[in-house]
Amino acid sequence: MSNNDKKVNVGVVGFGMSARVFHCPLITSSPYLHLAAVVERHSDKSKDIYSWVTVHKSTDELFANPDIDLVVITTPNGSHYPLAMQAMQAGKHVIVEKPFTITSKEAEELCKVAKETGRICSIYQNRRWDGDFLTVKKLIKGEQLGRLVEYESHFDRFRNFVKAGWREQTDAAGSGMLYDLGAHLIDQAIHLFGMPKTVFATVNNQRQLEETNVADDFTIILGYDNSFKAILRSSMLARHDPVLRFNLRGMQGSFRKEWLDVQEGQLKAGVVPSDAEYGLESPEQYGKINTEWNGLHVVGKVDTEKGDYLSFYNNVAEAILKGDSELLAVKPQDGANCIRIIELAQKSSDEGRTITL
């Protein structure tokens, strides 16, 4: 990408786990981005790692900084909409942590403002660049399983207690698993197959803990033409190792993938995209295939594609530097579509029926 050596100056709102693990290490790994500022209201912890950054004590200060081109919003879900709106109206490009917003009405308003202001607006759907998802995407495109009839995608964990933080607070807007991990699973499914014809879901609080009643379990079934369905599943009470990640069934065969993508663990351990081992899964974690393909019966393992979260940030930088929102891999309408499915899943669960779009 030719950019005449110009870099996009980035300001990050918040310095919690999301900013420390996922955003700042990737921003500083991109040749097209410069981490220029961080908003920390009560500390200067970002300077301990990134000594050159300017620490602002409010978003108003950041949005008024004329040197900042791109604002990355990593704050709790309920603040995404007002902060993204304010940033774009201040002339800044925006990346919003998933979920995009709490309601589809808010999401559509941000889509409209992005068009009106000519600002680049994207949602941090990094899981599109998970190595396992890239592998699944390649298998589907290559039709190695024949006509796909069922796609099953899991994001499970075991936590039979309440973890500190707003995500498990009953009164926090956008708390619970549906807005958290559900936003990833739904985005991946829509990216592969488009918007569904029907939505059926059960959204529950299985743990029944005294401290919280947020949704900690869901099953979503997205219905498409030709009886194809995408099953999205997440539970807080999945105490098995390795966890199931994908299960695909087609007319000619099936593919099963266990284990979670390695990049989150690597970033937490300080491994960054420039390190040789970044994004690479060990062979014992590869998915298994059993299929008929080109007249051959194929049984074995499929090498997992290299994970590449950095591609998300490089893509946003390219769209900004070239002034072309059509270049975005994750467009604001993608975020709005995801929130719409979240709403319909909750409605389906509440009313005990299949919703037709």
Q: Tell me the Rg in angstroms.
A: 20 Å
Biggest β-sheet: count, sense, barrel? 9 strands, mixed
Distance between the termini: 40 Å
Give the strand order of the largest sheet, numbering strands 1, 2, ... along the chain: 14-13-12-11-7-10-9-8-15
How does this structure look, described?
It is a single chain. This protein has 357 residues and is an alpha/beta fold. The chain is built from 10 helices and 15 strands. It has helices at 17-27, 45-49, 59-64, 80-89, 104-117, 131-142, 181-193, 263-268, 310-322, 332-351, and strands at 8-13, 33-39, 54-56, 70-73, 93-97, 121-124, 148-154, 198-204, 217-223, 229-235, 244-250, 253-258, 287-293, 296-302, 355-356. The strands form 2 sheets. Strands 14-13-12-11-7-10-9-8-15 form a 9-stranded mixed sheet. Strands 3-2-1-4-5-6 form a 6-stranded parallel sheet, with helices on both faces. Helix 2 links the parallel strand 2 and strand 3 (54-56). The longest helix is centred in the last third of the chain and has 20 residues, at 332-351. The protein starts with 7 loop residues before the first strand and ends with a strand.
